Amino acid sequence: MKQELIEKISKCRVCKKNDFSKVLSFGPTPLANAFITREKVNREEYFYPLDVYFCNNCKFLTLGHVVSPVVLFKDYVYVSSTSPIFVNHFKVFADDIHRRFILNKESLIIDIGSNDGILLKPFKVLGSKVLGIEPAQKIAKVAQKDGIETLAEFFNVALSKKIVGKFGKAKVITATNVFAHIDDLDEVINGLDILLEGDGVFIMEAPYLVDFLEKRYFDLVYHEHLSYWSINSLKVLFRRFNMQVFDVKKVPVHGGTIRVFVKKKFGKYRLEKNVEQFLKLEEKWGLDKKQTYLDFADKVLENKVKLLELLRELKSKGKSIAGYGAPAKGNTLLNYFSIGLDFLEYIVDDSPWKQGLYSPGKRIPVVESSEIYKNRVDFLLILAWNFADPIIKKHDKFKESGGKFIVPVPTPKVI
Ligand SMILES: [Zn+2]
């Protein structure tokens, strides 16, 4: 472990108090996106603590340690547009926002953590001005080449001022699947305040804590993913900056995501009724109680025991198994459940960025998906289990020829 690259949290990101209880521990774990090249496969890796804490004061759920974002994001290999499901999701997203907030060619849309421009491309097609902010240099270059102006920097107050000077203020700022990754939210929200027009809207998407508990998707826990958001926590957080959550929608990606609309306190949009409904739902789920998370931890352990039982049984019958999908979450599952080359021959993934690399920790080779036909296995363990249905549909040939799929979470299921 490189000490200087990791820090234990000293105060709550939401309420600024220091009153935490540890509720879930995965032990020392390598970074979920730190796929290893062939040259480095025999070198030692860094392992960092991966523990989840509950804030007894404001009921926020967070990782207990923060790995330096420079380590986490500079060589990031996740590129959104490799997944057609996401391309469509963001196109629909852009259409909705464009219509609802009556954007025109003068409206500036800024996307924080814009990746390869997956959300900004449809906004540009609709005729708005767009600007991406993406600290991963390589990915920012891809976006730039595709005609999406992108700044390869981390978002903060200084950058906001620079943008206002050069491009003006933004009508809409979006942040999809990045808000959970940011440690210094004060810096980011102060930046939003500077950059947003008076009646501008900040729209974020993040995995929803209720789905996390309900579907037991513990593998959402990895070092990039610092915060586990409920509407209540977001409400408490934004209130500290004179901003208000005024609308919430559920969106069916990543196994359960919320889209949250935030405005400045005196912005013109009215508070929608569903905000209150989400808060009631969260109360029903006991999101404000420590015991809820301790019970959750027990269920995850049960999931581990059952899956290992199944895999051991298959191996003892001489069956071969490979992994399907190499998402970050897959590495949490493989490392926490300790599933390595003793169980899996290889992992297939459609992203060319990951093919030819090895999974962090367990060092299982990642290959292209045609491998399942060339180097036949009996079972495919679906690590990208939130896409289980489309994956199974896509590979009916594998099933017809006698292959079977295993969906590992929340409890192992053979299909
Ligand atoms: Zn707190």
Explain what this protein looks like in three dimensions.
The protein is built from 14 helices and 19 strands. Strands 8-7-6-9-10-13-12 form a 7-stranded mixed beta sheet. It is an alpha/beta fold. It has 2 domains: 80-288, 3-Layer(aba) Sandwich (Rossmann fold), CATH 3.40.50; 318-414, Rossmann fold (3-Layer(aba) Sandwich), CATH 3.40.50.720. Helices cover 33% and strands 24% of the residues. The model has no long low-confidence stretch (mean pLDDT 93). The protein has helices at 69-73, 84-100, 120-125, 137-145, 157-167, 185-195, 209-214, 231-239, 274-284, 290-316, 328-337, 371-374, 388-394, 396-400; strands at 6-8, 20-29, 48-55, 61-63, 65-67, 108-112, 129-133, 150-151, 170-176, 196-207, 227-228, 243-251, 257-264, 321-324, 344-348, 366-367, 379-382, 404-407, 413-414. The protein binds zinc ion (ZN). Residues 12, 14-15, 17, 55, 57-58, 60 line the site of zinc ion.
Terminal CA distance: 40 Å
How is the main sheet built? Answer: 7 strands, mixed
Apparent shape: globular
CATH fold label of the largest domain: Rossmann fold
Percentage of residues in helical conformation: 25-40%
What is the count of distinct domains? 2
What's the CATH architecture name of the largest domain?
A: 3-Layer(aba) Sandwich
Structural class: alpha/beta
Instruction: Give the strand content.
Output: 15-25%
Bound molecules: zinc ion
Radius of gyration: 21 Å
- Mean pLDDT across residues: 93
Number of strands: 19
